[in-house]
Fold:
Amino acid sequence: MMSTEAGPRIAILGGGIGGLAAAAFLRDKGFHSDVYEQAAALTEVGAGLVIAPNAARLLRRLGVLDRFHKRAVRMEIGWEFRRWENGTVLSAENLQEGCIRLYGEHTYAAHRADLLDALRSAVPEHSVHLGKRCVSVEFEGDQAVLRFEDGDTIRPDILIGADGVHSRVRGAVVGPTQARESGICAFRALVPAAKAPDFARRHAQTLWIGPDRHLVHYPVSGEEYVNLVAFAPAGTSSVESWTATATLEELLDEFAGWDPRLVELIRAADTPGRWALLDREPLDHWNRGNATLLGDAAHPMFPFFAQGAAQAIEDGAVLALCLAEDPDNPVAALGRYEELRRHRTARLQEVSHGRSHVNHLPDGPEQQARDLAYSQADPLRANGWIYEYDPEVAMFLSRSRR
Structure:
């Protein structure tokens, strides 16, 4: 195995949340890695995200939670479901007390760029290579070979594909995989807090649910903005892209007739982005030779449990633990990583998929039964399998079962 003084040569393709999390956790375990990012600067498009206790725990372990919290907003209320036409609260959870009591960490809402900044602070400057557009990933036997637009070719000892939902590494590792149209598109926008109604500035993650649609909002960026993400039937113009846009009038049309307070919030938004949600089945495997996948490259999921970023961070933590446990046999370590992660992420893909139907029920008996179930539920406790997860505990339990 070719190696440097610091150990195996590890290449991470993609400098987003998953790629930087992997680099940070690898560094924490004594490994050097090189992150190759096609963009000229590390910026995160999109808008907000939620960092639940399972991810906050890992940010603390990396030593970056305090930096993250300078711009993140600690949630006091979550799972606040409201009825589409009049804002009637169907259920709400006390996150301020419940998260600490049950899981030892808070839940935060943040702009994606602020999470990226926190993770970037844990990765050495010289490890990140910008403007490196990968044009091909091929295998020579079990050896991954990356070629870049600028003519560079690298043959790392370990390749980590963190290059997102349209991953080039994924194509080389598992071959072409067909995505299905979900029939759902997502709009995202930011509302300046000064223009937002009072109810939207609360430290609350609020979900308005109605026939064929739902809308989520929470404050981000040190309370300077309210993040808004809405889901509606997909039109023919929807594409799977973080950079595609819609008009504000199109977003308003989707929620015409909804509670006037919600319409007021939408009217204050900037130009919304719009992208289609494509449906992908969980992979049977995501390793080949000395290459593996993480984050959206491995397990893209609908955003209805707000776990996409969290699962990428977990991936990075588990991958680093596996390599630290077996540094002289990286292929075995990658296999262990896949074994530990694949079933958990597949389960999250499945439950996130199912939530789209439940949230979009038309008014009627099914909707009434759902609303009653929401009013009686304790989702913070019921989803403990998500929030209590700790990679080190998972590794320990796995070793004890061998």
In short: Residues 1-5 have pLDDT under 50 and may be disordered. The radius of gyration is 21 Å.
